[in-house]
Design goal:
Blueprint: H1 12-34, H2 40-70, H3 82-112, E1 118-119, E2 123-124, H4 134-169, H5 173-178
Antiparallel strand pairs: 1-2
Length: 182
């Protein structure tokens, strides 16, 4: 088991980053979309978790991005058309950009609204340099919500594309992320 990528598959570090991002994303989407459906005390607790996990996700993205820039990516299958490679590269970029945007806009609007993250009940962590502003809080919250819906759509397309490659094309695109390709 290699930490770094090989020309044919992702290494254990990238698989860990990918799997961790899936878990963090599902937690965030679940709480973000349905947290308000609970009683006030439960909703407050859930959104404290949501904000804390958002900060974890931000630092996850920092580590993932630093690691990703330093390593090579596995090659695309020879049977994969160039247009599909371009679409996949754009989708990956948008997924990364969306995760960054979600974490930063969430931190920003919470701080601007006067409700900065309380990191797992340990300490309050407002975003540096962000003033209290209802106007900015509402504007940035709107961006946060729009990007959340866009990310859900992108993740669905990303998942469908991986399944298409696995079951329809029968190539190694999905297997290389799972570490099951030589």
């Amino acid at each position: 088991m290699t930490i770094g990528n090989t020309p044919t598959r992702y290494g254990s570090a990238m698989r860990c980053f990918h799997g961790g991002a899936i878990i963090l994303f599902l937690i965030q989407i679940g709480i973000g979309f349905w947290g308000d459906d609970f009683a006030q005390s439960t909703a407050s607790f859930l959104f404290m978790i949501h904000k804390s996990v958002g900060l974890v996700l931000l630092f996850w993205m920092v580590a993932w991005t630093v690691f990703r820039i330093q390593i090579t990516r596995p090659v695309w299958p020879l049977t994969m058309p160039v247009w599909e490679q371009v679409v996949a590269a754009c989708a990956h970029f948008l997924l990364y950009a969306g995760m960054w945007t979600m974490a930063l806009t969430g931190w920003f609007f919470s701080t601007a609204a006067g409700r900065p993250p309380v990191f797992f009940t340990l300490f309050t962590w407002p975003m540096p340099g962000v003033p209290l502003s209802d106007i900015w809080a509402h504007r940035v919250r709107d961006i946060h919500e729009i990007v959340a819906w866009c990310l859900v759509a992108l993740v669905a397309l990303h998942t469908l594309a991986a399944l298409k490659h696995h079951f329809w094309n029968r190539d190694f695109v999905l297997k290389r992320m799972m570490g099951r390709y030589p």
